[in-house]
Amino acid sequence: MRKRLPDLKVIDYSPQQDGKVFFGAWVEIENEQGEVKKFRIVGPDEIYDRKDYISIDSPMARALIKKQVDDEFEVPTPQGKKEWYVNSIEYQK
To answer: pTM for this structure?
Structure first.
């Protein structure tokens, strides 16, 4: 942890983020089969054992960056590309 402290940076909320997915967003997504997921995009060191957090480095998070509500996006998986839709985006202020 001490090795990481000098590299840590606090990311403050910015009004420019409104309506788009960026670091720190709570995002709800859905696929055509009706499967719904809700999670927060965080740094890899913040996940711990939480099932509702995903790393900013994950394929899902990378595919979501800059997306807006109702946008469709694809995520590469070992089984092929999966399509999802953005239902909601929230930031805790």
So the answer is: 0.80
